[in-house]
Amino acid sequence: MQNVPHGRILWYPGQLTPNASVEATAAYQTVKLNVLRLTGTADSQRNARLAKVRGALCCPACRADLLDFPSFLRCSSCSAEYPVRDGKIYFIEVPNATDELDSVKYRLKKALGKAYYSVGIAVFAPTFPFNYRAAVLRFVEPDKQLVIDIGAGNHRIDQRIVTIDLFDYVATDIVCDLSSLPFRDESVDAFISRSVLEHVPRLTQICKNLARATRKNGLAAHLIPFMFPFHASPHDYQRLTHIGAATLFPGFELLEQRNATGPFTLLTLLLTELFAVIFSLGNERPKAFLYLTFCLIFFPIKFLDFPFVGRPSMLGIAPTIFTVTRKTRSQTPCPL
Ligand SMILES: [Zn+2]
To answer: pLDDT per residue over 240-274, tens digit each?
Structure first.
């Protein structure tokens, strides 16, 4: 098949003002059709998400515009090519999971699909079930806004929210690396995440980049661990106190903060981790399976957290904290 460029995509719905010219609207319609053809998938919801996010995308290597080809995007400046397969965009090669527990989790996520989250995480995981979707939807309007769930794994919380991940899950729209973000300056209304930011190296630099790509008055809504044992996926670099989470993004103000899990989650986590370490005699592979086994034994304790979540007095010993901040000023340009 001949690779014929469809031309640059210059418009998407969020950019059209009420005074947009007829030509601009017509051009958008043409471009939209090209996007749909480009993705080559019957998944209309994925097409709608990609059409929505396309105008915000740029080359992650040099931040120049991307040109559309039938099966890839090409940078207009550095000529890097990014494959588009089954309606997904791949900005990186998909890495392999290296940690034992992580690779077990990765296989479980792939095998169980939605059940991994609805049953596995909500019931048997050692953490109190926090309604991340409801918490996020109190602040964003995915119908009107471009909302991006970073490191979403195989869990799509809403069909209108674009998902990105380092790994290629069924629920992933864009495969990319957070340290090399494929979004234009001030192009995204909100970045959201759940237990992801502890896994990124050079967090300050990544947060500057997320802040750069967020529109003025756009939001950052992130669930981040504080008093939580080490866990890979694929690496684990840091914890943040509530003050650390509130001041993570330069030029952002705090809108809301609460502990998503409480002291009984902490107790469940400690018991599960401690017993897995003791009975595995320090060996990683049995530890991963023992960890999942002890989850099945200790998980009911976490439900005692019910009266202790969403309490400012519990922030100091919270396993996980949900923080929402808003971008109040643009910052100096963020270098590549
Ligand atoms: Zn480039």
So the answer is: 999 999 999 989 999 999 999 999 999 999 999 99
pLDDT for position 99: 58
Separation of CA 66 and ligand 1 centre (Å): 8
Where are the domain boundaries for CATH 3.40.50.150 in the chain? 100-327
Report the separation in Å between the CA atom of 270 and the middle of ligand 1, taken as the mean of its atom positions.
46
In this prediction the pTM is: 0.81
- Ligand 1 centroid distance, CA of 96 (Å): 25
CATH class belonging to 100-327: alpha beta
Between CA 117 and CA 154 the distance in angstroms is 9
Contact (CB, 8 A) for 231 and 193: no
d(CA 72, ligand 1 centre) in Å:
13
Centre of ligand 1 from the C-alpha of residue 93, in Å: 16
Phi/psi of residue 55, nearest 5 degrees: -65, -20
Question: Over the stretch 23-58, which tens digit does the pLDDT of each residue have?
Answer: 333 333 334 434 444 444 447 888 899 999 999 999
